[in-house]
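Example S7 (structure tokens).
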């Protein structure tokens, strides 16, 4: 059952650490079954309660999952490895369209802004006790949020979207709580939730966002929180429409205790309007990252929400890192005020690349999705076969398994750097690799 790897330890902590080390080292594979608790207890010469405590620790850390009589097994994507730590190997000469990165040519030059704020910092260094949020950054961010009808609330700064999501979840939930997540959805979120000891409940999505009926089922099944990507959903490109937002708000009105977390990482690269869901639940958070429009390495996002949520996140942040570099905050302010990014032009560039590929695939009988953002999602009958055939043809794409829970197979193509000349050959290769696929919802 466990190959050559022996689980070791006399105490619960040692047993759990033994399993976790093996998963991290690749000696226990995702999906591999663990021994029944009594069997392992007998093998190790310990009380079954000790093994039960070890398995509980592993579940809370997102390493294993338990499915009733089917027993416990290593999670398909355990937190100790992460979905993107086992990437598809790209042979030499393969065009890599799997990364999910923005086009470097559409990112602004950071040197002028960083040099200017570094000179300011030399004259007046930020010291302990300073305001953790740059007032001008908060003012600009709040004005843009107001313009997009995001409810009023204080603004704080986190080290990117995922940092904000983790802090908000930790501020309200406890191990064992369930979180409704988009399926397909952002792979790192699908790993983060179980790593916090939380359970994922999948909610299917289509081009207009999460499906209201599936959200209702998840909330009625006990989900205490909902994670939603408003625009440029990764991997499908979904964007919450006005009618869909109204339908989702109606469902949330029936469950006002739900913690709502909205991620608008597409702000600045999307030309579709925002339709926020916040306002009907007691606790909520709305997050905007600068990663896609200004560069992933800036590691900065603004977060607003209800006063209790923001206060909890700010308080915990104060006890840990303290604050996000004011140097970076000042640089972002300068980039914003200098108009370093032409948002409409960037959005138009990504839209053109998506539409060219989607149209080319459609002419070849292949259905695909990409309403916003920089990715196109292509349903396929066999992920492994499609990825392998595309690699053989010289194209690298991301297997959909990185982004799915219960959703059907698909592949994700990042079009951020795809040229018009490459579109037809890629569509030809995709048609040969997967054939035609009927249009459908993703979940």
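Recovered sequence:
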């Amino acid at each position: 059952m466990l190959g050559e790897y022996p689980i070791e330890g006399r105490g619960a902590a040692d047993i759990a650490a033994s399993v976790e080390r093996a998963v991290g080292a690749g000696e226990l594979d995702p999906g591999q079954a663990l021994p029944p608790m009594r069997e392992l207890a007998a093998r190790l010469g310990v009380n079954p309660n000790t093994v039960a405590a070890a398995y509980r620790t592993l579940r809370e850390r997102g390493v294993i999952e338990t499915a009733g009589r089917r027993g416990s097994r290593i999670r398909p994507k355990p937190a100790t490895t992460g979905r993107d730590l086992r990437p598809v190997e790209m042979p030499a000469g393969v065009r890599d369209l799997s990364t999910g990165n923005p086009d470097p040519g559409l990112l602004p030059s950071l040197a002028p802004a960083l040099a200017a704020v570094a000179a300011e910092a030399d004259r007046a260094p930020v010291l302990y006790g300073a305001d953790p949020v740059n007032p001008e950054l908060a003012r600009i961010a709040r004005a843009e949020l107001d313009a997009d009808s995001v409810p009023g609330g204080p603004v704080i700064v986190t080290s990117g979207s995922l940092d904000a999501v983790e802090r908000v979840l930790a501020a309200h939930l406890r191990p064992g709580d369930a979180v409704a997540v988009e399926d397909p959805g952002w792979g790192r979120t699908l790993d983060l939730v179980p790593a916090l000891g939380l359970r994922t409940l999948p909610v299917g999505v289509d081009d207009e966002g999460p499906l209201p009926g599936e959200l209702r089922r998840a909330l009625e099944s006990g989900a205490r929180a909902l994670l939603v990507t408003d625009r440029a959903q990764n991997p499908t490109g979904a964007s919450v429409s006005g009618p869909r937002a109204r339908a989702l708000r109606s469902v949330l009105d029936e469950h006002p205790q739900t913690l709502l977390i909205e991620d608008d990482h597409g702000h600045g690269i999307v030309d579709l309007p925002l339709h926020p869901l916040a306002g009907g639940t007691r606790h909520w958070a709305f997050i905007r990252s600068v990663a896609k429009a200004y560069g992933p390495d800036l590691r900065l996002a603004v977060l607003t929400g209800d006063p209790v949520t923001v206060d909890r996140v700010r308080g915990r942040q104060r006890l840990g890192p303290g604050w996000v570099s004011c140097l970076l905050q000042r640089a972002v302010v300068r980039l914003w005020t200098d108009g370093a990014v032409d948002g409409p032009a960037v959005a138009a560039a990504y839209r053109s690349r998506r539409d060219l590929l989607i149209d080319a695939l459609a002419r070849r009988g292949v259905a695909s999705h990409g309403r916003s953002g920089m990715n196109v999602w292509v349903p396929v009958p066999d992920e492994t076969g499609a990825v392998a055939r595309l690699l053989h043809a010289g194209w690298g794409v991301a297997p959909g398994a990185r982004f799915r829970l219960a959703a059907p197979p698909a592949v994700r193509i990042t079009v951020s750097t795809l040229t018009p000349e490459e579109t037809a050959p890629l569509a030809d290769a995709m048609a040969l690799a997967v054939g035609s696929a009927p249009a459908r919802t993703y979940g």
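Notes on this example. The first strand starts at residue 64 and ends at 66.
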